[in-house]
Amino acid sequence: MKDIFCRIIDGEIPCNKVYEDDDVLAILDISQTTKGHTLVMPKHHCESLLSCPADILNKVMAVAQRIGQAEVSVLGAKGVNILTNCGEMAGQTVPHFHVHVIPRYLGGEGGFRLTMTEQDTSKMNLPVLAKQISEGIK
Ligand code: AMP
Predict the structure, then answer these.
(1) Could you confirm whether 96 is annotated as catalytic?
(2) Residue 126 located in a structural domain
(3) Nearest 5°: CA angle at 76, between 94 and 38?
(4) CATH number, domain containing residue 33
């Protein structure tokens, strides 16, 4: 079964379109975390950034950059969060790669705060960990 973003791309479900070209579609998020919260996605289905071909990924990120710039220049945002969730465990709810572009306003309502918990690094071997990841890069 098609995911909801494939259905939007195919015109089966309406959306508030922000940008479109041959490879990329950007729409307003149905739940506006802040005013102007936009989703940028490839038209060709892929599940997340991790499985997105590099040439398409570059196009999606270039559009996300331009939309972030527009949110600053047109909406008066003072900052922008650009983020993508990869996999259910990371909070991805729609299994079609998309990048959130979320404008942030001075004293504005809404938004979110990223809180990162710190692990006890004394129990980790950081050089080995770095080498492990490094050797896994294809
Ligand atoms: P994520 O949790 O990163 O997968 O983000 C999915 C986003 O898609 C959420 O912020 C939803 O509000 C948004 N969303 C779900 N359905 C629609 C829709 N029909 N149109 C626009 N945005 C949607």
Answers:
(1) no
(2) no
(3) 10
(4) 3.30.428.10
Q: Show pLDDT as tens, one digit a residue, over the chain (138 residues).
A: 899 999 999 999 999 999 999 999 999 999 999 999 999 999 999 999 999 999 999 999 999 999 999 999 999 999 999 999 999 999 999 999 999 999 999 987 788 888 889 899 999 999 999 999 999 999
Its pTM stands at 0.95
Q: Would you say residue 51 lies in a domain? A: yes
Indicate the top mutation candidate among 3, 4, 10 to test ligand 1's pocket, ranked by most ligand atoms within 8 A of CB.
4
Question: Are 40 and 63 spatial neighbours (Cβ–Cβ below 8 Å)?
Answer: yes
- Total domain count for the chain? 1
Burial of 53 (0-12, 13-18, 19+ CB in 10 A): exposed
Q: Is 65 domain-assigned? A: yes
How many whole angstroms from 138 Cα to the centroid of ligand 1? 31
